[in-house]
């Protein structure tokens, strides 16, 4: 843990040095920039005459072939077929075919390496025509320095009706994050609420021990019920591991994102009315930090008690992500927390080791009898266009193609067999020109409703809207025919959809959710300098409290320290921002 | 050596051998563990059950590597890079070391050159300036960006130079009497008798450019052009960061598949093999002294 911090600090210092030294060198580029901007102006006049001839509209192709350079965030295993690359694949050829626009990659990189490439591009003032950026902070910086194009007009003119419908489904929560002074400066990727943080429990163990859970069948269990299950699992060791662990949690305890809250206690905290690591608003309009509330103190108290009683992993604080996965896979623990899709990529290991393993999933019930959940940040990643690029509408047109046409077409196999084959073979979505998702707010449950109908035989498999749904229906059907199957994928898809999303669907239907809306997702001035330290203070204090090395009442001292070390300054900055 | 049979020295030997064997094991066991992991099933690895022997033996990881087009392409790029870098390095090292091996009486300004070299070895430009130079030369994304910045390994130049200094003068004089030009002297006399030192610097060059992943990370901006070590480095996944970055479920599925530790272990094993093959080939040069027997004094 210490080491991580050290590395992070070193990384931050190094990148700061890098940017500074690049800024120092940017004088060299002034001349070449001036050259290229005259060239750009020439291009602009050419562009205007060209546009006059363009068959205008959301899907209008360019009469003459154009090229666009891209910054591409890639992933480790895109599953591209032999010969295809990020730069030249079925998706980029589809854009070429529809719009007469050819992609040239300015740079490609995975994860954090990509962020470094973006910083290098910004510092050397050499942006690609269109690129993805990961965070709101970078967007702020680009807008502040006037480096990206205003997309308001092209969005209004060129965005297809369905694309606008998608953004509208978030009630403006998504598009507003990219809007500065009423101007749309980027196309935000959307982030569906994949709520809530679910508790996954080994159903085969419950059956073996004859334990009844959630007897009222509302999909929710109380904190006490959870404790009871953990105690019984500890006592009876149904996995015959000889070394059972009740509940194992990641040391960072919670995350401000549903996806990130796997192995976290977010579900427990939410049930107790705490929303750690989120910025929330009181009824009087004042902002507060969710980790520093009485409710979160109570959460830590519960965890500290569990630690004392041995229900919580005695090695809490030092157990790494991989260690926790190993506990699950080895059958030492049968309770874990995570989003609906963890059976697909995490719990599948459990099944691979134990052919009897099955899971059930619940939400922890709040004292108000509801499932408390928070809205995710509605935006995830942004697509920006370089200031001065002569075809800013291209970004919108490409979005129309991928998030409207491809999502809605019924005749993909016929029109673009190559693209259809990509989807059938599971080639990753990051190979599309823009590695973001732009989906309707309801897309998760819409897809599920298709899957459920398909599994129940109410619709033919071919009538499911997406290819993925069609595949899942087949997986689930195969699993239901033979639940002892050796095929882990069938097992995973059944669990993620018919258990994971089914729970969300059920709670939505029965109106069991109590939604909480965080008010701020960005970075303020003081956060830039103090946030890393405040996070460290929080994390270390919470670990100490849970493991009992300091008493619970130190929480109050922590809150005071936190405020003194810049916390209250940050809060007033946030209040000023959202006013 | 005369064997000392006293109990004291025998005890000393036992202690020394124990320490040496332990050190050897410390180096060897992690590698062996990687080998065992590469032959185990991914679930067993995830469960952290693999120690020194494979659990649920399978060749699946190796089959998958053979099907990974990018791995094959990157492997090819690395091989090309090693060969090019080796040829260029050796030529430049030899051409540079020979004049420097002369005394400053024969080669005026030798000491200035020497000091420049040592200065450049100790204080280099650093990452960002080097990056900018490479960028301005339009070398980004080309295999030359991996070779040219390190074309003259100064440490190796000094090593070879010192070896040249040690070559008996009379060999050169004999060649001169037979009417050899300076180039002939260099390539017919000096190079053949310097095989041990050249083999050493060749090994440095091969190992260095084969193992280097960092320059690929900086100078190569398209994944299809990555050398194999950069590619392998890019496969390491921090799942927590990905989750926090909001990666979607299907991408997570693909990523966790490739981050399977057994698959990565198999890749490591595959990229170590070429080096394991090269060592024994060069070793005989490293051991035999060649100068011996060439002159009688």
Automatic annotation (TrEMBL), chain A:
Residues 31-40 have a biased composition (Polar residues). The keyword Ubl conjugation does not apply. Coiled coil: none annotated. Keywords: Signal. InterPro entries: Bact_solute-bd_prot1 (IPR050490), EF_Hand_1_Ca_BS (IPR018247), EF_hand_dom (IPR002048). Residues 1-30 form the signal peptide. Residues 31-58 are annotated as: Disordered. One of its GO terms (molecular function) is calcium ion binding. It comes from the Bacteria. Residues 212-236 form the EF-hand domain. This is Putative aldouronate transport system substrate-binding protein.
Automatic annotation (TrEMBL), chain B:
The keyword Transport applies. Residues 71-282 form the ABC transmembrane type-1 domain. Pfam families: BPD_transp_1. It is a multi-pass membrane protein. GO terms for biological process: transmembrane transport. GO terms for cellular component: plasma membrane. Keywords: Cell membrane, Membrane, Transmembrane, Transmembrane helix, Transport. Its main location: membrane. The chain crosses the membrane at residues 14-32, 82-101, 113-134, 146-165, 265-282. It is found in: Cell membrane. InterPro entries: MetI-like, MetI-like_sf. SUPFAM superfamilies: MetI-like. Belongs to the binding-protein-dependent transport system permease family. This is Putative aldouronate transport system permease protein.
């Amino acid at each position: 843990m210490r080491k991580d911090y050290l590395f992070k600090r070193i990384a931050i210092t190094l990148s700061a040095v890098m940017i500074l030294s690049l800024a120092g060198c940017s004088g060299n580029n002034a001349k070449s920039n001036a050259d290229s901007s005259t060239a750009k102006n020439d291009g602009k006049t050419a562009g205007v005459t060209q546009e006059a001839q363009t068959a205008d509209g959301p899907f209008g192709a360019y009469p003459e072939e154009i090229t666009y350079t891209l910054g591409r965030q890639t992933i480790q295993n895109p599953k591209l077929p032999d010969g295809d690359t990020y730069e030249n694949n079925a998706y980029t050829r589809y854009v070429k075919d529809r719009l007469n626009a050819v992609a040239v990659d300015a740079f490609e990189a995975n994860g954090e390496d990509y962020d470094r490439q973006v910083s290098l591009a910004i510092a050397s003032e050499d942006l690609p025509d269109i690129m993805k950026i990961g965070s709101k902070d970078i967007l702020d910086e680009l807008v502040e320095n006037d480096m990206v194009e205003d997309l308001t007009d092209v969005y209004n003119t060129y965005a297809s009706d369905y694309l606008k419908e998608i953004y509208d489904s978030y009630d403006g929560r998504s598009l507003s994050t990219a809007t500065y002074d009423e101007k749309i400066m980027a196309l935000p990727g959307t982030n569906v609420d994949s709520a809530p943080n679910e508790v996954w429990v080994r159903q085969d163990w419950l059956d073996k021990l004859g334990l009844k859970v959630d007897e009222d069948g509302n999909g929710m269990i109380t904190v006490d019920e959870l404790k009871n299950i953990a105690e019984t699992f500890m006592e009876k060791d149904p996995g015959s591991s000889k070394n059972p662990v009740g509940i194992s949690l990641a040391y960072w305890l919670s995350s401000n994102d549903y996806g990130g809250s796997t192995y976290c206690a977010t579900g427990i905290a939410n049930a107790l009315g705490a929303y750690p690591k989120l910025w929330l608003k009181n009824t009087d309009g004042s902002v507060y930090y969710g980790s520093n509330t009485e409710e979160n103190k109570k959460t830590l108290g519960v965890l500290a008690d569990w630690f004392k009683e041995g229900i919580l992993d005695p090695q809490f604080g030092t157990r790494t992500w991989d260690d926790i996965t190993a506990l699950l896979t080895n059958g030492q623990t049968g309770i874990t927390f995570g989003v609906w899709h963890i059976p697909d990529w995490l719990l599948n290991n459990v099944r691979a080791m134990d052919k009897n393993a099955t899971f059930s999933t619940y939400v922890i019930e709040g004292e108000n009898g509801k499932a408390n959940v928070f809205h995710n940040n509605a935006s995830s990643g942004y697509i920006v266009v370089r200031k001065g690029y002569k075809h800013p509408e291209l970004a919108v047109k490409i979005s129309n193609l991928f998030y409207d046409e491809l999502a809605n077409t019924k005749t993909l196999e016929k029109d673009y067999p190559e693209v259809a084959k990509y989807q059938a073979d599971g080639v990753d979505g990051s190979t599309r020109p823009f590695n973001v998702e732009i989906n309707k707010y309801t897309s998760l449950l819409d897809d599920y409703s298709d899957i459920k109908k398909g599994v129940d035989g109410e619709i033919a498999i071919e009538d499911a809207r997406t290819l993925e749904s069609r595949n899942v229906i087949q997986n689930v059907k195969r699993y239901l025919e033979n639940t002892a199957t050796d095929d882990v994928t069938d097992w995973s898809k059944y669990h993620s959809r018919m258990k994971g999303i089914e729970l969300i669907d059920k709670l939505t239907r029965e109106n069991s959710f109590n939604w909480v809306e965080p008010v701020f997702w960005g970075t303020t001035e003081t956060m830039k300098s103090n946030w890393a330290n405040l996070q460290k203070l929080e994390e270390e204090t919470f670990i100490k409290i849970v493991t009992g090395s300091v008493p619970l009442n130190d929480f109050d001292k922590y809150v005071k320290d936190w405020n003194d070390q810049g916390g209250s300054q940050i809060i007033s900055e946030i209040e000023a921002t959202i006013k | 050596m005369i064997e000392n049979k006293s109990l004291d020295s025998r005890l000393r030997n036992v202690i020394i051998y124990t320490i040496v064997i332990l050190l050897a094991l410390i180096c060897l066991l992690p590698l062996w563990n990687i080998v065992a992991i590469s032959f185990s099933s991914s679930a067993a690895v995830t469960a952290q059950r693999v120690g020194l022997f494979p659990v649920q033996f399978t060749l699946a990881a190796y089959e998958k590597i053979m099907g990974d087009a990018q791995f094959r392409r990157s492997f090819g790029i690395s091989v090309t890079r090693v060969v090019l870098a080796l040829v260029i390095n050796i030529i430049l090292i030899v051409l540079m070391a020979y004049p420097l091996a002369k005394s400053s009486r024969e080669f005026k300004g030798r000491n200035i050159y020497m000091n420049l070299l040592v200065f450049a070895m100790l204080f280099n430009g650093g990452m960002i300036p080097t990056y900018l130079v490479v960028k301005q030369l339009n070398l980004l994304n080309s295999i030359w960006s991996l070779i040219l910045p390190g074309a003259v390994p100064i440490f190796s130049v000094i090593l070879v130079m010192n070896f040249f200094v040690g070559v008996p003068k009379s060999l050169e004089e004999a060649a001169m009497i037979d009417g050899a030009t300076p180039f002939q002297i260099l390539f017919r006399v000096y190079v053949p008798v310097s095989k041990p030192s050249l083999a050493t610097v060749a090994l440095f060059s091969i190992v260095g450019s084969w193992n280097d992943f960092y320059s690929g990370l900086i100078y190569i901006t398209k994944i299809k052009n990555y050398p194999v070590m950069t590619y392998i480095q890019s496969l390491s996944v921090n799942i927590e960061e990905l989750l926090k970055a909001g990666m979607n479920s299907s991408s997570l599925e693909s990523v966790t598949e490739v981050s399977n530790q057994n698959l990565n272990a198999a890749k490591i094993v595959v990229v170590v093999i070429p080096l394991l093959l090269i060592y024994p080939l060069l070793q005989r040069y490293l051991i035999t002294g060649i100068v011996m027997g060439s002159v009688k004094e």
